[in-house]
Specification:
Helix content is 39%, strand content 17%. β2, α2 and β3 form a beta-alpha-beta unit. The protein is built from six helices and five strands, in the order βαβαβαβαβαα. By secondary structure, it is α/β, with parallel strands linked by helices. The chain has a five-stranded parallel beta sheet, sandwiched between helices. It is globular and about 50 Å long. The longest helix is centred in the middle third of the chain and has 17 residues. Bound molecules: 4'-phosphopantetheine. The site of 4'-phosphopantetheine has 9 residues, from β1 and α4.
Length: 173
């Protein structure tokens, strides 16, 4: 339990799949530092500040989970904060190629930082931030897929989504 692990990503927004990986990380590592990439090329739904705030609220009272932002190379950030492990979730084979490339590139950039892959519970194997946003926007329920604070913030962004009969759901945008 000596190592500090970094869990990097976009977290736009954080989902219960991410929470599952963080819980698994905490069973192996001294702490998990969630590192949100600041990427000016992307147009996220939630600003970096909003994402930090959501994660802080989600892990309020748990000193083993920290949240931070970074830009530039992930391995440089890891070195700077004294983390020796990068944790990434692997949901399905489709994640593998991209993750494998990133892990090997990161190893080439800094062989002292190890990437560890963790599998979420099967019930989250189809879950992604992109799908959460799409389902919510189209009037579907995201309960049990995201922490309650995310559901509240989605409602604040898009307004309340009225329950509609299946087959009569309208796009809200
Ligand atoms: O949640 P995401 O969007 O799949 O996370 C991707 C992330 C943030 C882990 C990745 O884009 C990243 O590490 N970016 C930092 C830039 C970097 O270090 N690039 C070289 C390593 S491949």
């Amino acid at each position: 339990m000596k190592s500090l692990a970094i869990f990097p990503g976009s977290f736009d927004p954080i989902t219960n799949g991410h929470l599952d990986i963080i819980a698994r990380g905490l069973s192996v590592f001294r702490g998990v530092r969630i590192a949100i990439l600041v990427n000016p090329d992307k147009r996220p739904l939630f600003t970096v500040e909003e994402r930090v705030d959501i994660i802080r609220l989600t892990y309020r009272g748990n000193p083993r989970v920290q949240v931070d932002t970074f830009s530039g190379l992930l391995v440089d950030y890891a070195e700077r904060v004294g983390a020796s492990v990068i944790v990434r979730g692997l949901r399905a084979i489709s994640d593998f190629e991209y993750e494998f490339q990133m892990a090997l590139m990161n190893r080439r950039l800094n062989p002292r930082i190890e990437t560890v892959f963790m599998m979420p519970a099967e019930s989250y194997s189809y879950l992604s931030s992109r799908l959460v946003k799409e389902v919510f926007q189209l009037g579907g329920s995201v309960r049990d897929l995201v922490p309650p604070v995310v559901e509240r913030r989605l409602r604040e962004k898009y307004g309340p989504v009225p329950a509609q009969p299946v087959g009569r759901r309208r796009s809200r945008r």
